[in-house]
Amino acid sequence: MTGFRTLDDLDVRGKRVLVRADLNVPMKDGKVTDTTRIDRLVPTFDELARRGARVVVLSHFGRPKGKRVPELSLKPIVAPLSKALGGRAVAFAGDCVGPAAQAAVAKLTDGEVAMLENLRFEPGEEANDAGFARALASLGDLYVDDAFSCAHRAHASVEALARLLPAAAGRLMEAELKALRGALDHPQHPVAAIVGGAKVSTKLELLGNLLRKVDALIIGGGMANTFLAAQGREVGTSLCERDLLDTARDILAQAAQRKADILLPQDAVVAAKLAPNQPTRTVPVSSVPADQMILDIGPATATSLVERLGACRTLVWNGPLGAFETAPFDAGTNAVAQAAARLTKAGKLLSVAGGGDTVAALAHAGALDALSYVSTAGGAFLEWLEGKTLPGVAALEARA
Question: Which residues are catalytically annotated?
Answer without folding.
Answer: 37, 199, 356, 379
